[in-house]
Design goal:
Layout lengths: L1 E4 L4 H10 L9 H9 L3 E10 L5 E10 L12 E5 L3 E2 L3 H18 L5 E5 L8 H6 L3 E3 L2 E6 L4 H7 L2 H12 L3 E4 L3 H17 L7 H10 L6 E8 L2 E11 L2 E9 L6 H13 L5 E3 L13 H5 L4 E4 L2 E5 L2 H18 L4
Parallel strand pairs: 4-6, 12-13
Antiparallel strand pairs: 1-2, 2-3, 3-4, 3-5, 6-15, 7-15, 8-13, 8-14, 9-10, 10-11, 11-12
Length: 337
């Protein structure tokens, strides 16, 4: 018999995630602690456990994000499931993940307006189950770069225009280093924040980045890269690393400095080639909608995939109000008023 619980053995959970073929950093208990330390984030972790053996059959970990506090909080909370749910392909696993997500949906009625599942692998086998639970699929592109080869081979697969940009960045004196202290973390965050403002997108509080830096960087689960030109920070890139995957998490750069993004991506690829198997570019938008950096990512020679996303509205009334309110909040957050 299957029981859904938020009380579980952390070691058992992490072993399950580590052993799963699609286990990823977003579903680890370490990420729970990141969310706990981040402003406006609340972790939600549920496991489907066999009541007799105690074995875990499925897990799901979400982050409930609420950027507006007070009276508007119930109209702003959303939940994001990144790289989940996870279940092994078996009769027990299929049954467990269905029950698990049903229980998750019931819980979210009180916590979030909607849930978005951001897929990082092809989950076609779960499509029918998720749709039966009210989730709607939408296309979402991404690019995956094979790192299971030499850096020279990776270089040869990069489009000529990107290689030219990397060489020009070097000639322009752009150097890449890893950040070493909190002051450099603040510089990194400021670059990311300004980049998001430029494209009119709100950005998470610096506490999320500080938690990742303090918890993940010392153990090699995250790298914070900084591009320096003439002694000044001009670009940054943050990647998450788990098992065989390097995940492109956040990036930012000064608009007036050319080729800094090319230099940062190449540094990540070169440093991790031959050690990890895949570099995940973190998404490239809906295929029919404009996405400014899609062409930039495509020209690094990765494989285009369309794993898509799933979304479920838990409260349609609040969602309609939130759509209007979020537009106003977004403008305030991005300094458009």
């Amino acid at each position: 018999m299957i029981e859904i619980t938020d009380s579980f053995d952390k070691v058992q959970w992490d072993n399950f995630v580590s052993d799963h073929p699609h286990g990823n950093i977003f579903q680890t208990t370490e990420m729970v602690e990141v969310y706990r330390q981040a402003k406006n984030y609340e972790p939600v972790s549920l496991a489907a456990v066999d009541t007799v053996s105690g074995d875990i059959f499925a897990v799901v970990q979400a982050a409930v994000i609420c950027e507006i506090r007070g009276i508007g909080s119930s109209f702003s909370a959303r939940s994001v499931i990144h790289g989940g749910p996870l279940a092994f392909e078996s009769r027990e696993g299929t049954e467990a993940v269905s029950v698990l997500m049903g229980q998750y949906n019931a819980l979210m009625k009180k916590k979030a307006i909607y849930t978005q599942i951001r897929n990082i692998w092809d989950i076609q086998e779960s499509k029918q189950m998720l749709e039966s639970l009210g989730y709607t699929y939408s296309d979402h592109l991404n690019y995956l770069i094979d790192l299971d080869r030499t850096a020279d081979t990776v270089w040869q697969s990069i489009h000529k225009s990107r290689r030219k940009g990397i060489n020009r960045a070097e000639k322009a004196g752009i150097e890449i280093k890893k950040i070493e202290n909190d002051a450099e973390l603040v510089d990194s965050y400021n670059l990311i924040e300004q980049t998001y403002r430029n494209v009119r997108m709100p950005i998470a509080d610096i506490s999320l980045f500080r938690a990742v830096y303090n918890l993940f960087a010392p153990t090699g689960m995250a790298d914070f890269y900084m591009a320096i030109q003439d002694g000044m920070p001009v670009g940054t890139r943050v990647v998450l690393k788990y098992n065989d995957l390097v995940y492109d998490w956040y990036a930012g750069s000064k608009k007036e400095v050319e080729y800094v993004d090319e230099a940062l991506v190449w540094c990540v690829l070169k440093e991790n080639a031959g050690t990890y198997k895949t570099f995940d570019f973190g998404g490239a938008g809906h295929p029919s909608k404009p996405y400014g950096v899609r062409e930039f990512k495509r020209r690094f020679g990765g494989k285009e995939v369309n794993f898509g996303r799933y979304e479920k509205t838990h409260d349609k009334f609040k969602n309609r109000i939130a759509e209007v309110g979020y537009g106003i909040y977004k403008k305030l957050k991005c300094g458009q008023f």
